C-alpha cells in the first residue's frame, strides 16, 4: 500500500532546483522527490543493536542507574 507525504514550507529556490533536476532526469518533480528519498534512505545503513545500545548508554551515562535485581526484588515485594 502506497502512502502520501506532503512537504510544506519549502523555499522557492529548493523547489526550482528540484524541478530542474527532475527535468534533467525526464521525471516529474514528484517522481524526482521519490527517487531522491529512496536513494538517500536506501544508502543509509541501519545501525546495529550494539551501536544503538552504546548510544543509549552514552545518553544515559549521567543518570542514576538502578540494578535490575533491585527492581525485580521491589516488584516481588509489592505483590
TrEMBL record:
GO annotation, biological process: regulation of DNA-templated transcription
Sequence ranges assigned to domain Antitoxin FitA-like ribbon-helix-helix in this UniProt record: 4-40
Region (Disordered): 59-79
Biased composition (Polar residues): 59-69
Pfam families per the UniProt record, alphabetical: FitA-like_RHH
Listed name of the protein: Antitoxin FitA-like ribbon-helix-helix domain-containing protein
UniProt lineage: Bacteria, Pseudomonadati, Pseudomonadota, Alphaproteobacteria, Hyphomicrobiales
Amino acid at each position: 500500500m502506497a502512502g502520501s507525504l506532503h512537504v510544506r514550507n519549502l523555499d522557492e529556490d529548493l523547489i526550482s532546483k528540484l524541478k530542474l533536476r527532475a527535468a534533467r532526469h525526464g521525471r516529474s518533480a514528484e517522481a524526482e522527490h521519490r527517487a531522491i528519498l529512496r536513494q538517500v534512505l536506501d544508502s543509509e545503513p541501519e545501525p546495529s543493536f550494539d551501536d544503538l545500545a552504546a548510544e543509549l548508554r552514552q545518553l544515559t551515562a549521567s543518570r542514576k542507574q538502578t540494578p535490575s535485581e533491585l527492581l525485580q526484588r521491589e516488584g516481588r515485594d509489592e505483590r
